[in-house]
Amino acid sequence: MPLMHRVADCVRDMGDEVWEKVDTFNLDLPVGDFDSPTISPNQRSGGKLLTQNLSMIPDSIRPILLSGSLTPEEVDRLAAGFRAELKEPKVKQFFQFVYAWAVKK
Fold first, then answer.
1. Coil vs helix vs strand at 5
2. What angle do CA 103, 104, 105 make, to 5 degrees?
3. Where are the alpha helices (DSSP H) in the chain?
4. CA distance 78 to 56
5. Quick check: 1 pLDDT over 80?
6. pTM
7. Hey, is 33 helix, strand or coil?
8. Strand partners, 55
9. What whole-number distance in Å separates Cα of residue 34 and Cα of residue 44?
10. Are the C-beta atoms of 4 and 98 separated by less than 8 Å?
11. Residue 59 pLDDT > 90, yes or no?
12. Paired residues of 25 in beta bridges
């Protein structure tokens, strides 16, 4: 089991004298805009926001890529491909957010 799914267990292992309640919540957001009968309207809205944020990554890492061995043309080509894949994904993917929280006694 991935570590992110074991956080609540690690907190529970500290003992009942420390925490009143430990709980978790998983949120799966679609990456890209696609239809699926399993996606709620809230997930679709969250997925659109996630996709908007992801589309800004190429601009954010452009200086790093240019400081390496990539040319501006290569960086532009990679950015365009990344954004195209976000707009019309070839594979439907979800990004899973795992939330864990506890109420201290």
1. helix
2. 120
3. 7-12, 41-54, 57-67, 72-87
4. 13
5. no
6. 0.75
7. coil
8. none
9. 8
10. yes
11. yes
12. 99
Amino acid at the residue 81: G
104 token code pair: 């201290």
Residue 99 one-letter amino acid:
Y
Q: What average pLDDT score do residues 26-51 get?
A: 89
What's the rounded Cα separation, in Å, for the pair 59 and 56?
6
Residues 26, 96 contacting (CB under 8 angstroms) = yes
Dig out the tokens for 31 from the structure: 């990456």
Instruction: Please report, as a single letter, which amino acid is at residue 8.
Output: A
Query: For residue 99, what are the β-bridge partners?
Result: 25
Q: Which tokens sit at 82?
A: 């990344």
Q: What percent of the chain has pLDDT over 90?
A: 60
Separation between Cα atoms, residue 55 and residue 24, nearest integer Å = 29
